[in-house]
Amino acid sequence: MIEYRIDRRSGVATYLQIVQQTKQALRLGLLEPGDRLPTAREVVEALAINPNTVLKAYRELEREGLVEGRRGLGTFVRRTLGEGKAADGALRAELAQWLVRARRAGLEQDDITALFTSVLSGSDSEPNQGDEE
Amino acid sequence: MTLLDLRGPVRVTIGLHRRVLWAALALVLLAAIALPAGRWYVQSLAEDFAATGCKVENTVPGCGIRVRGFLSRSLYVNRMFHYIGLGMGVLPLVLGAFVAGPLVGRELESGTYRLQWTQSVSPARWLAARLAVPAAGALLVLPAFVLLAAWVRRESLDTWYPLQWNELPVYQLIGPVSVSYALLGIAVGAMAGLLIGRTVPAMAAAVTMVGIVTGALVLIRPRLWPALDGPSRGGDAGIFSGPVDLSAVLHHPESHFWPLQLVESAIVLALAATAIVAAFALLRRRHR
Amino acid sequence: MTAAIEAHGLGRRFRRGGWALRDCSFRLPAGRICALIGPNGAGKSTLLALAAGVLKPTEGTLTTPPREAIAYVSQDKPLHPQLTVAETLRMGADLNPGRWDAAVAGKVVEGGGLDPARRVRALSGGQRSRLALALALGKRPTLLLLDEALSDVDPLARRELMGALLATATEDGTTVLMSSHILSELEDACDHLLLIDGGRVRLGGSVDDLLQAHTLVSGPISDLAPHTVVTARATGRRLTALIRPEGPVSTDGGGWQVEEPTLEELVLAHLGAPGVPALLTTAMEAAA
């Protein structure tokens, strides 16, 4: 079962962090259709947050058709995101190798994040470039 | 408010003060054993003394030490009875101090009353439970103790040191006034504790108030029932050596024991009831 | 929506004169988790003690659930020092017959590894807080009042205890009113906010509604009428202001930025501007 973590300094609303982490888990294949999300009580107890925040996040996920609430049973995953392709082992391994090289080149965590996001946003507008940058 | 409602708070009160309550019970038991034991001791002394052939009235040579030994031992037992009687006289003060201090004042001082009140115990039930424990103790234990003391006193009448009904320590040990004063102590203690709300000052105030009331009533005790003309035939002193008896023209015969005890008890109980009503009124005025 | 707490013109005077709380009117709907925020001495503790029924209002009325359904942890967490942890919990069971949930209370105590045989007087401040909270949660209240209840608990334990109490509240639909002078302690846990200052209510409502009712604007210095200005601060030729928009905020003037404020900005702005009229959103407005 998914365990949420809340970063209080991120500036992102708590309910959005739950939504994002659920989606990420769906993309990575950590959550699959039929899986049950933790109950509001479980999330509230683990994170010490207001129950409405959890319910709001689950409503948002429900609105997007990703999960469905079944009365008295809990909230269940309906479909995955990106067919769970992010869980692809080969791509992941390649990225891990690249990360080793970046570290060797002396890049720090923030450098790596900056590089990755800039390439990512660059590749949106110019899909054929950016590989070698 | 029913007795059933008080079950929880009473159990808690006993739990909080069980050491003091055990100690009090032990003291009472000790006194209750000492009374008949003293009586049997004197009896056996008298039998042993009779066996020696000596007589107290006309001491023959060789009997002096035996007579003195017999009389002084008998006197010790008489003294013990007096001390127990004095203890009974102090009991209302002790009860007042206990209720005013540990039972009520300390809870107000330390704030634990708030814990009780928000654990579903209303202020009135809280106070009632704190009064019920010592009051039940007094009502269950003291009457039996008084009956025992009255019997021991009657048995003492044919000894060399008879216990007179109108001696101060004896009078308050063998009649219902003892129970009434105990209840007064509890009631005044509750009032003082609530009024002052701090442990030590409340205890001091309770002792002072109970002391003043007791002292005043002891002084007017001889006037609580019409005395008879003429000096007492027995020439008794003791509690009735007050203004009534000073001129030796008035006295109380032993038949006045019950009227005197009942009138005094009624007065003391009325005062106790007033203090209780005042305590609950005070509680209701300050807290909802 | 039924109200868990409803106050009308509530006031409480200090014993030495002056008002701890005055003209307090609001309602807290059932099932809400409400932060009671205000600087030290604002009247938070007084309001909570009034709601808990350990203080009596000087004026006005206050409607709450019955005493049996309210739990209250006051700032000083009074506990009986002579009892052990286990005895304290047994007291909770004795005083809340038919209500007490030993499992809930036991879990809170075990979470901190408290030895049941330990006496309360030997516990640390944080451990006492934990025990006091166990007593409060064990009675499964419908209204839970917490007065800086977790302030002396270490951060890790605070999160665990807050989680436990919010989980219980989620399950039972408990209404919670908890105070702190530090907003960040409560911000994640609460859906409603009651801000008091100087004994008066300044803001009250659901957090979302309150945030929506205010706007943070910055732009060239100009007249902000007809909006209610809570605070305005000029830096150079630019003006930053927290306003309550009366109607749409026009951003045509050029260079205007409009943002939703954070809860902290809202609270600080109101504490810095005592003259600004109080605002209660419909959720917390007392019925006329």
TrEMBL record, chain A:
The keyword Ribonucleoprotein does not apply. It holds the Pfam family GntR. InterPro entries: Tscrpt_reg_HTH_GntR (IPR000524), WH-like_DNA-bd_sf (IPR036388), WH_DNA-bd_sf (IPR036390). Keywords: DNA-binding, Transcription, Transcription regulation. Residues 12-80 form the HTH gntR-type domain. The keyword ATP-binding does not apply. It comes from the Bacteria. This is GntR family transcriptional regulator.
Automatic annotation (TrEMBL), chain B:
It comes from the Bacteria. The chain crosses the membrane at residues 20-42, 80-105, 126-151, 171-195, 202-220, 262-283. The keyword Secreted does not apply. Keywords: Membrane, Transmembrane, Transmembrane helix. This is ABC transporter permease. It comes from Streptomyces cirratus.
From TrEMBL, chain C:
GO terms for molecular function: ATP binding. Keywords: ATP-binding, Nucleotide-binding. InterPro entries: AAA+_ATPase, ABC_transporter-like_ATP-bd, ABC_transporter-like_CS, P-loop_NTPase. Pfam families: ABC_tran (PF00005). Residues 5-223 form the ABC transporter domain. PANTHER family: SKFA PEPTIDE EXPORT ATP-BINDING PROTEIN SKFE. This is ABC transporter ATP-binding protein.
